[in-house]
Amino acid sequence: MNKYCFPKKKFLSKKTILVTGASDGIGKTASIYYAKYGANLILLGRNLNKLQQVKSHILEKCFFRVEIQIFEIDLLNINESKCLHLVKVIKNSFPYINGILHNASILGENNPIINYSSVIWQNVFKVNIYSVFLLTKFLLPLILESVNGSIILTSSNVVKKGKANLGAYTTSKFATEGFMKVLHEEYRNSSVRVNCINPGRVRTKMRITSFQNEKKKLFLTREIMPVYLYLMSDESIKDSGKVFNCQELIK
Fold it and tell me: Where in the sequence numbering do the catalytic residues fall?
């Protein structure tokens, strides 16, 4: 398989993948493509109606059967008891999971540090990094039961040099890459691999809202999916501790 092209075979068959922020944007598209290539899905999002629409769309379009569980979870209010309940319910259907895509993020406000709301700063970190820590902590036993498990975190272009007035979001993405590197070191000698994807400039609601006057070309969410597919497939079992920049990989 060419790493960053769409494969021709159902190469995620028998895998179970959990996706956060699955009701819209990149998370929705990744969920559709993972199912298209044979994966069972566990979809997390804060809008139950949208999650049900994604599930219905996948079941209608797939030419083969996949299992899909959906969970309405607001990551702003995630806690240990909710994670324990989530794991308990998942284990009723799946003995293990093969992959986690930590996709969900919020941007926060556009303000310099001196004017930044402390409440919004905390909220950004709750969603963008604390929820990643909690979900990973409680889901790790399930992914360690699998063979060649893959954990993908979502980084951003802002990590390259920082972004003025987006302090909480930018700092949370620096923390995301740090978390990835720590987890990679902790599981270096296991079959679990941990990487970050930097989607780059992608046409999502969050991007359009945040950069209204942007003139640079934006990728469609489907155009970057080969990277997401590659990192969930067994083709990437030797890749860990890395940041994959979609703008540089997708031509």
Answer: 169
